[in-house]
Design brief:
The structure holds two protein chains of two kinds. Chain A is mainly β. Chain A is built from no helices and twelve strands. In chain A, a hairpin with a 7-residue loop joins β10 and β11. Chain A is globular. The N and C termini of chain A lie far apart (41 Å). By secondary structure, chain B is mainly β. In chain B, β5 and β6 form a beta hairpin. Chain B is globular and about 40 Å long. The chains are: A mainly beta, B mainly beta. Chains A and B meet through β5, β6, β10 and β11 of A and β4, β5, β9 and β10 of B.
Chain lengths: 115, 115
């Protein structure tokens, strides 16, 4: 069965620390897509990244980087030199090839960055 | 380029009343998805619509909930005879082409409170 697990419920760091948010997924499909979304305190959902199952290259965007490891079914997200504005709930999500496009979300990790 | 619009942002209803939630997709998007977020939980898929068609309603409760996306106008999620357990944030997302190849962009959500 398809599933996304974000084992870390809450993480608290001090500004400028690096932090990694874990995401482990389960799927029977060989073709699938993985996503990260950010939900700041204001409540909206902000798209961060999409990765397909055939592309295992890591990606870096500014202070954000993503590590996709198919062998361990993980798609981890690292924030380098965290800032207070990074404080939010971060969701990892999975979309399978055989689905109609609906996203399966993890329960989210609440990140608090303290000054 | 306006994003996904949802209104109202906050909605308060008494038990037994009807709730109508509206969603206008991004310009050029004809695929709409509705998700529900219960407190401290991730988002759960409810329904996927294209113009005038319901593509996948596998996540919709069997009773009291319905959704439409008419040829003209926004998509509507309707909840009849609301109960306290319907209190949640309801998010709408849209995509350009549908299926899992596309990124879903989310609206700001409607927070429904049932008294």
């Amino acid at each position: 069965a398809q599933k996304v697990t974000q084992a870390q419920t809450e993480i608290s760091v001090v500004e400028k620390e690096d932090v990694t948010l874990d995401c482990v997924y389960e799927t029977r499909d060989t073709t699938y897509y993985l996503f990260w979304y950010k939900q700041p305190p204001s409540g909206e959902l902000v798209f961060l990244i999409r990765r397909n199952s055939f592309d295992e290259q890591n990606e870096i965007s500014g202070r954000y980087s993503w590590n996709f490891q198919k062998s361990t079914s993980s798609f981890n997200f690292t924030i380098t030199a965290s800032q207070v504005v990074d404080s939010a709930v971060y969701f990892c999500a999975l979309s399978e090839a055989l689905s109609q496009g609906n996203l399966i979300f993890g329960k989210g990790t609440k990140l608090s960055v303290k000054p | 380029n306006a994003g996904v619009m949802q209104n109202p942002r906050h909605l308060v209803r008494r038990r037994g009343q009807e709730a109508r939630l509206r969603c206008s997709p991004m310009k050029g998007h004809s695929h709409v998805y509705w998700y529900r977020q219960l407190p401290e939980e991730g988002l759960k898929f409810m329904v996927y619509l294209q113009k005038e068609n319901i593509i996948d309603e596998s996540g919709m409760p069997k009773e009291r909930f319905s959704a439409e996306f008419p040829k003209e106008g926004p998509s509507i999620l309707r909840i009849q005879q609301v109960v306290r357990g319907d209190s949640a944030a309801y998010f709408c997302a849209s995509s350009e082409r549908g299926w899992n190849t596309d990124t879903q962009y989310f609206g700001p959500g409607t927070r429904l409170t049932v008294l």
